[in-house]
Amino acid sequence: MSRKIKIYDSAKSKSPAIEEIKDVLTYKDLIIQLIRRDIISRYKRSSLGILWTMLNPLGTMIIMSIVFSRMFDIRGAYPAFIITNLVAWNFFSQTTTIALTNMIWGSDLFQRIYLPRTAMVISTIGTGIINVLFSLVPLAIIYIFTKTPVSETIILLPLAILFLAAFALGFSLILSAFVVFFPDVAEMYPIVLTAWMYLTPIIYPEEMIADVLNGWVLRLNPLYRLIRFFRLVSFDGLYPTTQETLTAFIFSFGTLIIGWVFFTKQAKKFAYYV
């Protein structure tokens, strides 16, 4: 009796992650429209509009400078130090928080029209990139006002933003997948963000916690690596070392790959929860 052997054909096996990339490329124009919608809807009822993107870090910087400037010994101007870190931090914290909200409240959009499941998260990161570009205006103003020198390392700022965007996208995908199954994640995340901010040298110099747990608090903190890269090429005016660049690359794109694969693998189950 002959036994039929089933031959595995890799050409017929579709990877959800690869299929999602194809869908994103197919619907890229629609994703761009989502980015436009996000920007317009966020600021249309505000008299100052997108100026709030620039005023927000300025206001926070002024308050923190008044409170902490004499407490910390920062090389150069503390206002320039704090606003540099805030621009990078705000990009991450705002995009990941909005991505969670969009995943919860945007489920009806998926039911009305076909969209790649990652579209809402991608559009959120796209909106965040536009906002962070506007945030560079107050950053430049503070640098000029405090006479903070800017070196040729500023040409690496787009790379720093790319690293932050890749990490934020990957992390947002992981969060968005979890929040579909566990809605309480959305309530817990602000608490996690607050703790994460204070464990990351944003308002204080990194030397203050360099020795905490033998330095593992900083070593295991991906945002420390990415925000430090951002600060090195802007405020510090230093070229990151090869190791620092490679570490930032691994943290950012490693998180993106993990998040993309995890999200797309779970996406087929979303219909039962949203």
Summarize the structure.
This protein has helices spanning 16-26, 28-43, 51-68, 78-105, 107-112, 119-145, 157-181, 184-198, 216-219, 222-236, 242-266. It is mainly α and 274 residues long.
Please, could you describe this protein's structure?
69% of the residues lie in helices and 0% in strands. It is globular. The chain has helices at 16-26, 28-43, 51-68, 78-105, 107-112, 119-145, 157-181, 184-198, 216-219, 222-236, 242-266. It is built from eleven helices and no strands. The chain starts with 15 loop residues before the first helix and ends in an 8-residue tail after the last helix. The chain has one domain (17-35, 47-265).
Q: Provide the helix percentage.
A: 55-70%
* Broad shape: globular
Count of DSSP helices?
Answer: 11
C-alpha-based Rg, rounded: 21 Å
Q: Uncertain spans, ≥5 residues at pLDDT below 50? A: 1-13
End-to-end gap: 50 Å
Strand content: under 5%
Largest sheet: none
Provide the number of structural domains. Answer: 1
- Summed over residues and divided by their number, the pLDDT gives a mean of 84
- The string of secondary-structure elements, in order, is HHHHHHHHHHH
**Overall SS class:** mainly alpha
Strand tally, please?
0
